[in-house]
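Q: what does this look like with thymidine-5'-diphosphate bound?
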Amino acid sequence: MFISFEGLDGSGKTTQAQLLAETLRSHGRDVLFLREPGGTEISERIREILLDKKHLHMTQISEILLFSAARAQLISEVIRPALEKNCFVICDRYADSTTAYQGFGRGLNLETVRAINAAATGGLWPEKTIFLDVPISELISRREKSGLPLDRMESGGLEFFERIRQGYLHLCKEEPRRIVRIDGMRSVDALRQEIWSVLASTFTS
Ligand code: TYD
């Protein structure tokens, strides 16, 4: 079973993805928790290049190819072997991030993005994707409170984030059976319960 979590930076998706992994483990399941970009030696090195603020001149096509290269390596080395062993794979971001950030956010041609995603994933998509939706104004105030510095991707500005959110909403409409939008403006525990009940039918089917 393959589940991914999507959302903007600071939406709380990582917390929820980790909580789901813990809950599944407490039910005796084998769970592999991964974050993108990363998860293999090659993918972690690509991650450093992608997030480094020195690389502000990176072209959009280099950016999408690097994210996709990191993913292709992760799929081949880690995700496919784990799924073959019947392990639960929970991924904090997957190829929908590429559609939302590089396609809608950066404005790359959506057909090109689709073709690159198809090549990088080899057609492997999660059974369910949880999109944690939080308004941009809330994300900004969370970020200000955290005091953390921005990485290269997070330096894109307000309109960039608004376009990404619209991209995710578009994907939810396009693939309503796979991608479930969850209103992220609730407590960690309320969200954990809702996500569990959304996924319960997937787990038992
Ligand atoms: P990360 O620190 O892992 O952020 P988060 O905790 O929000 O997932 O950084 C990943 C950044 O890369 C994040 O800003 C989203 C972006 N990204 C893309 O632009 N395209 C992609 O395909 C992926 C996987 C991530």
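The mean pLDDT is 95. The longest strand covers residues 128-133.
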